[in-house]
TrEMBL record:
Organism: Acidovorax delafieldii
Superkingdom: Bacteria
Protein name, per record: Diguanylate cyclase (GGDEF)-like protein
Domain EAL: 23-277
Residue range from the parent sequence: 513 to 791 of 803
């Protein structure tokens, strides 16, 4: 038995053991954060390309870890998905984003639509529409102020089921967007069946703008397709004035990126806003 144990241990290299230990640590810490108020939402403005006004904001989760500070979602969303923690985490995000939209409304900032990211795993939960409805009811957030961003890959399999889920969500009055568009392999013929309002053009294409012709051709094609289908387009990861002008010229409706603002805490966003209005 000892030998066998030895062999098993040998199967896990010290590096793998380290990785597993780290994952377990993240899982435990994350679980604690979800239950004890350790998560934060930052908000990034999305600008109307024509008017230059803020058209909506995207909520992006951060983990306020006492030791590591604000942890990026790139470091824990994957683990949250693997462990199922994405379900309670996602529910917290929905509630908090709706509560914030309601607070902005009550404080006189007006109607600010808030976009929330849904992971594939959440999208497959059979009671997702009930969770969304509950968040709206509980917070008093008008349903048209909530937008849900779904990645291309999560809506593809199986298509009929995804279609039903999307229909149940839109019947609540929320709006749907397809996130990271262009990185998956969505069938364009299916796209027109989906009750979505917006396509978010992935950052990688925006990055390519101006540096190679392929980037431009792709953005151009996506915008043309969206227009044909009556969908709005949002470009992610806009970092330069040059990219913004290019995107506006190609007919992209909305722009999001560091050029305008990083994602930030609600108070910082309000200050940024006030600064813009003051000129
Ligand atoms: P995403 O949905 O594609 O969100 C956009 C990401 O790009 C954000 O990273 C944002 O900070 C970053 N970004 C925005 N503008 C720029 C720019 O001009 N340049 C560059 N280089 N990056 C920019 P963040 O906040 O680290 O989030 C990463 C990903 O984590 C998100 O990608 C999303 O997939 C996921 N995520 C974030 N919050 C949630 C959440 O509440 N639930 C779920 N399921 N996933 C989330
Ligand atoms: Ca997103
Ligand atoms: Ca995205
Ligand atoms: Ca992305």
């Amino acid at each position: 038995a000892k030998d066998l144990g030895g062999n098993r241990l040998a199967f896990f290299s010290p590096h793998m053991t380290e990785v597993l230990t780290e994952r377990l640590r993240v899982e435990a810490g994350l679980r604690h954060a979800i239950e004890h108020g350790g998560l934060r939402l930052h908000y990034q403005p999305i600008m109307d390309a024509r008017t230059g006004q803020v058209s909506s904001v995207e909520a992006l989760v951060r983990w306020a870890d006492p030791e590591r500070g604000l942890v990026s979602p790139l470091q824990f969303i994957g683990i949250a998905e693997d462990t199922g923690l994405i379900v309670p985490l996602g529910e917290w995000v929905l509630n908090e984003a709706c509560a914030q939209a309601r607070r902005w409304l009550d404080a006189g900032w007006g109607e600010i639509p808030v976009a929330v990211n849904l992971s594939a795993r959440q999208f497959q939960e059979p009671d997702l529409d009930r969770v969304v409805d509950r968040a709206l009811q509980r917070t008093g957030c008008p349903s048209h102020l909530l937008q849900l961003e779904i990645t291309e890959s999560s809506i593809m399999e199986p298509v009929e089921q995804a279609l039903q889920t999307m229909q149940r969500l839109t019947s609540l009055g929320v709006q749907l967007a397809i996130d990271d568009f262009g990185t998956g392999y969505s069938s364009l013929s299916q796209l027109k069946r989906f009750p979505v309002r917006k396509l978010k053009i992935d950052r990688s294409f925006v990055n390519d703008l101006g540096s190679n012709d392929r980037g431009e051709a792709l953005v151009d094609a996506i915008v043309a397709l969206a227009q044909k289908l009556g969908l709005r387009t949002v470009a992610e990861g806009v970092e330069t004035e040059h990219q913004a002008q290019w995107l506006a010229r190609l007919g992209c409706d909305e722009l999001q990126g560091y050029l305008f603002s990083q994602p930030c805490a609600p108070q910082d966003l309000e200050n940024w806003w006030q600064g813009r209005v003051a000129g």
